[in-house]
Amino acid sequence: MGSGNAIRGSRVGAGPMGEAERGEAAPRVWVSFYCANRHETKPSFASDVAVPDTWDCPRCGFPAGKDSANPPAPPRNEPYKTHLAYVKERRSDTDGEAILEEALNRLREKRKLVKAAMEAAAAARA
């Protein structure tokens, strides 16, 4: 027949989660924030905490402020930069040429070693 479990879909320790178990909710205050797109957001805060000056708009992601007439300006999007653009910001052309020459010299040395090893292996076979 059945497994004898009288309460199905529950687990050990599960019980009613009412106000008695969680405690009383803190007094709340609702504050309006406005973004550049004129979206209004009204998050609630505990009345005993400091309310932030700005809040991210959940609709567009722009910053929102408390003044509906003067909302914060949307962030300025920087164009995508390539890795080379970042490198050029940090290094001058002469630095780049010196680094390139150093890397080329290491490659040439490595090629010389590989060539010498291949010649030695060919001589050993002969």
Detailed description of the structure:
The protein is of the alpha+beta class and 126 residues long. It is built from three helices and six strands; from the N terminus they run αββββββαα. Among the domains are: 25-65, Rubrerythrin, domain 2 (Single Sheet); 83-125. 36% of the residues lie in helices and 13% in strands. It has a four-stranded antiparallel sheet with strand order 3-2-6-5, with no helix packed on it. The longest helix is centred in the C-terminal third of the chain and has 33 residues, at 93-125. It is elongated, with a radius of gyration of 34 Å.
Summary?
This protein is α+β, with helices and mostly antiparallel strands and 126 residues long. It is 36% helix and 13% strand.
Layout of SSEs?
Blueprint: H1 19-22, E1 28-30, E2 33-35, E3 40-41, E4 44-46, E5 54-56, E6 63-65, H2 83-90, H3 93-125
Antiparallel strand pairs: 1-4, 2-3, 2-6, 5-6
Helices and strands: which structural class?
A: alpha+beta
Strand content: 5-15%
Mean pLDDT: 86
Uncertain spans, ≥5 residues at pLDDT below 50? none
User: How many strand elements?
Assistant: 6
Rough outline: elongated
Query: How many helices in DSSP terms?
Result: 3
Radius of gyration: 34 Å
Strand order of the largest sheet: 3-2-6-5
Largest sheet: 4 strands, antiparallel
Query: What portion of residues is helical?
Result: 25-40%
Distance between the termini: 85 Å
* SSE order: HEEEEEEHH
